[in-house]
Every structure is written in C-alpha cells, then in structure tokens.
Amino acid sequence: MIVFNNKAFDFVENTTIAQFIELMKDQLIIENTALLITVNNQLISPSAIYTKIIYDGDIIKTRYLPMGG
Amino acid sequence: MWKTIRIDSNNNTIKSENYKDEYLGLGGRSLIAQFLIDEVNPTCDPLGEDAKIIFCTGMFAGSGLVCANRLSVGAKSPLTNGIKESNVGGSAAGALAGHNIRAIVIEDIPEGDAAMKIVLIQSNGTISLEDASPYQGMNNYEFVENMQNNYGEKVSVISIGRAGERLYKNSSLQVTEFGTNYPCRAAGRGGLGSVLGSKRIKGIVIQKSNKKNTLEFANQEQFKKIKKELNQSVIESSKTSPFSLVGTASTIDLVGPAGIIPTHNFTGDISENIENLKSDKFLEFVNKNGKNQHPCQAGCLVKCSNIINDADGNFLTGGFEYETIALCGPNCDIYDYEAIAKMDRICDDIGLDTIETGASVALCMEAGLIPWGDAQAALALYQQISDGTDLGNLLGQGTGEVGRHFNSKRIPTCKNQAMPGYDPRGSLGTGYTYATTSMGADHTAGITLGPDDPTDIEGAVATSNLMQHIFAMADSMTCMMAMATLGGQLDKVAELYNAMYDGNLNPDDLFAAADKTLLLEREFNEKAGWKPEDNVIPEFFRNEALPSTGKRFDIPVKLLSMKVKQ
Ligand code: SF4
C-alpha cells in the first residue's frame, strides 16, 4: 500500500516516483506534476523522481512548487 | 551561430565575438554567473572601470518554448556589493535572439562627464553607438517614445530613467513589454540601472531582425515535438492557475489574511483593508479600464501580466505585480489599487525598483516624515526621487541607507537589499533564502511559500535549498511561472535541451547545472568579501512575534552562517 496525500493506493512494483505521480495525475488525484514531494518525510528533488523507486508502505506527500511574482 | 556583442564604453568600440564553445548550453542566470566569474574582478567598484554589465538571453530564447524569451541582466551590484542577476520579460530577449545575440557585455566607463550613448541594433544586424545627449535626463516612457519615433514603433528598448543616470542604488532597467511596447517590465533588483548609467549608456534599442530565424538545433524535429508537448502542458495547467486567471496579485488571497504580506514596515499587523486588495477586487480594478491575462513576451502562454488604464482610458501601467502591490501598498498602510498603480507607473518611469522604493517609503513613514497610509504624500516622495531633491537622492540609495539615516531599528534588508513581499516569520524557508542566497533578500532566489510551507526548521531549510536550485534552473531557461509546470517534467526539459544543444543530459544533470550556478555565485561573493556571518535576518524579526501566528524567525544564526549544502 502507498499512502499518497493521506489516501491509500495499491502498491505497484518497480515503479519510479515519477511514474506513480503520473498515475495519480491520470486518476485526477492531482492536476499538475510540478511538485515538491516528500517520501516518508524526506524531501525529494524533482530531478530524482525519475530514478527513485517507491516501496510498499511509503508515505508520499506533495505540494505544488512554490512560485510567486 | 550565437554571438556575444562586446562594447567598450570608454573607447566606443563594438565587437561581435563568436560565442565560446564552453558557454554553449548556458543561458540567463547560469551564463551571467559564468561570465562574471570569468571576466569581472569581484573586488571591483560596481560603478568603476573594471565593472561590467552583461545582458543574456535564456537558453531557449527564440525557440518557441513557452515563456523562454527572458532577459537576464547581471553585474556586481552597487546595492549588495555581490553578484546580481535580475531577469525580466518583455520584448528585448526575443528581439536579441532574432539577431542570434546571446549576450551583450558592456565594459569600462567613459572618462569625465561624457555624453550618454544609445546602443542601436538595426534590422540588418548593424550595431552602433548613437548620441543620447538629447535624451539625457529623460525618464523611461518619454525616452521609449523618442526611440519609437526615431527607429520604428516596434523597436524593443532596454533603458534607464533618471534614477539610473544618477547612479541610484535602487535603480532598475526597464524593458518594453510585448504588445503594448511600454517600458513597464523591470529588471528591478540590485540597482543594476546605475551600472548601465555609470557606463553612460541610456539604453539599448533593438529593431526586429529582417533575417529569418536561424537558430540551430541538433535535432529540430525532436525539439519541435517535445516543445509542443511542454507548451501544451502549460496551456493545460494555466486553465486553473491563479497566476493566469488573476495575476500574481492572487498571492494576496493567501498571504494577506495569513499576515505574511508585509504591512506597516514589516510589523505584520493585519488591517481589515486587506479585503480591498484580494483577487476579486484586483480583477474589478484591472478590468474596469484595462485587462488581465496579458502576455509580457511573445510565446507566453501563462499570461500573468496585465494592462492598467487610467480613468480616461489611457495606459497607466502594466506588469502590475504582487511585489509592487505588497511593498508600495500594505507595507505603507496603503490599500488602494489606484494609488499603488500610480506608484508602479512612476517607478517604471524613473527606473526604480518598486520593492526597494516601497520599503524605503515605509521607513519614511516610520520616521514620521509623512503619515502612514497617506498615498498622496507617498506619491510626492516618489516625485522627489524623480526631481532629485536631497530627500529624493537619499531615497535613491536604497532601504538600508534610508533606515540608517533615520536611525531605524527595523530595517528590513538582507545584504543591504530590501525584503520582498513575504515576511520571513510567516515563511521560514523564504527567510532562510533571504539570508543565505547570493542575491540578497530576493524572492526570485527561492521562496517556499504556500500551503504546507514548512514551519519546522529542518523542513524550511531543506525546502529553501531545493527551491534555490529550482529557481536557479528557471532563471536560466524560462520565467518562473512556466517552471511551475515544467518543473514536473524535467525529463522532457532535459530531452529538449539535448535536441537543441546535442547534449546528453538527464534531469539530475539539469540540477547539477543549477548547483554549479549557485556555487559560482557564491564563489564570486566570497571573493568580493562576503562572509558567512553576513548571513543574517534583521534582529527585529527575531524579537517581535508575527501578530497572525505569534511566531518569530527562529532559525539559529549559526545555521544561517553555515555553508549551504548544495
Ligand atoms: S507568465 Fe507572466 S512573467 Fe512569465 S512570460 Fe508570461 S506574462 Fe511574462
């Protein structure tokens, strides 16, 4: 099981964070993939999501990239 | 294919140089950092002969990528005495890219009281220095009008007003906006207008190139395909983005009630008048005579800008942004869009950083020079800056100098640069950025604001470090509004880069490039004399609690002065 933004989802093996985020977008859980992501409270760089794999039990939280003008 | 134009302002020579191979793939902020570290002695006088001012387009300028026609201006800042990169939209970067110009480097200073010059880039690519003496003393709107009369209505202009001519440390460079062609876009921070003024250059005037776009791509088909996907993603996300639907003023809905917007010289006292500035009121104000959703540059699909007209329907200002509203408005207890828009116009006209100026005016109010909230009295101060009175000259020296003049104990600066529109007690990570970035207090160096902005020190520091990298990346490629979507597709951005530059980068490499930019900037500042112990947040943010949350800025001084882990 993966907890994504406080909701439970099935764990999918051999999935990168980026692929999981894409899944969440396809399911309309999130609108935009430009995110600050923590996995088990650890902040993950947006460049690392393409190589880091998710593990069963991971707790993933996201927030939109902070921007301002 | 890309060129660097090198102008010696003392000998009045212009050279067109082939672009260095090792600079290929750099752009905007990353290129500024590399140029400055390679060519400028960090200990130089920012307004002296060894200083240079550099204009660079972003790495995808002219390519049709969304929001990529961004111009970075870089120099040693006379305000912070450190490296400064200030970037701006408008029509100039696109026009330069049309001439295959990636960078303009202006060096040296003329001897004595030389007449000012204009750098003229003609449609056929000819570049010359023209006499600007008839325009000396003019502010930006009148200057641009003259340039349009002389060189064509559609010219792009980068210019300074009286503030830059008088070497004010809060002077901006103004750039004409796409569509309106008024000089309402500002490379505002760090007083870089004065660096151009010290070289006796009034402006750079660019006619549209009469050649077809000759940008080279390693794989044009691939580039087009990825560009289309990325642009489409920005179109999609813009449908719900408040920056697109309202503008950057939408930030007030979050930071106003939360007490994060600076009010009453960063006391954080929340006024019920903040309601006057929320998104609905902003839209009401803008759409009364003007419009929002205006693109500041060709190829913008987010359109966070706007056109503000006066009561008679005449253009008043454009690019009316959150930072201007926050500092010139609530920070001075002014909650009236009409008055703040006038301040924006006068700042753009004189060529002043609205953040620095708004923060300075608040200090005048705190000192009792004019009453709090008195918009007319504030506007009269702006006029004094334009007129160059003694008080106007003081205000032109920046917030730090104004505060010291009035013996204020509450000067909201880091590295002598005024804080932008987020109180560091209300956004701890943003405060960490203000204190630690090489740019001085600067929101474009990496804010952490928003729902879930960490309130714990560890989270705030980690988020700030990450955002400092993301902003360094954005500032080299596109405006940050586009990065709010592209930042989730760094795999495709890397592919886009490879298709243009024949590279072999992956997302981690893009991050590593941002890291290198930050390291070069830090190296420059260390050589310029910045010390880790200079990384401080003014004491009053530690001693006074933010009224809305009761929080003080509590990141330990020691943590701020530690070498930032890149
Ligand atoms: S999003 Fe805003 S700042 Fe960026 S290019 Fe468009 S109008 Fe300019």
Structure write-up:
The complex is a heterodimer of chains A (69) and B (566). Chain A is an alpha+beta fold and 69 residues long. Chain A has a single domain (2-64), classed as Beta-grasp domain (Ubiquitin-like (UB roll)), CATH 3.10.20. In chain A, 14% of the residues lie in helices and 29% in strands. Chain A contains one helix and five strands; from the N terminus they run E-E-H-E-E-E. In chain A, strands 2-1-5-3-4 form a five-stranded mixed β-sheet, with no helix packed on it. The longest helix of chain A has 10 residues, at 17-26. The radius of gyration of chain A is 11 Å and the shape is globular. By secondary structure, chain B is an alpha+beta fold. Chain B folds into three domains: 3-206, Aldehyde ferredoxin oxidoreductase, N-terminal domain (Aldehyde Ferredoxin Oxidoreductase,  A, domain 1, 4-Layer Sandwich), CATH 3.60.9.10; 218-238 and 424-566, Aldehyde Ferredoxin Oxidoreductase Protein, subunit A, domain 3, CATH 1.10.599; 247-403 and 410-419, Aldehyde Ferredoxin Oxidoreductase Protein, subunit A, domain 2, CATH 1.10.569.10. Chain B is 39% helix and 14% strand. Chain B has a six-stranded mixed β-sheet, with helices on both faces. In chain B, a hairpin with a 5-residue loop joins strand 7 and strand 8. Chain B is globular, with a radius of gyration of 22 Å. Classes of the chains: A alpha+beta (69), B alpha+beta (566). At the A-B interface, strand 5 of A face helix 17, helix 18 and helix 20 of B. The structure holds iron/sulfur cluster. Iron/sulfur cluster binds next to loops of chain B.
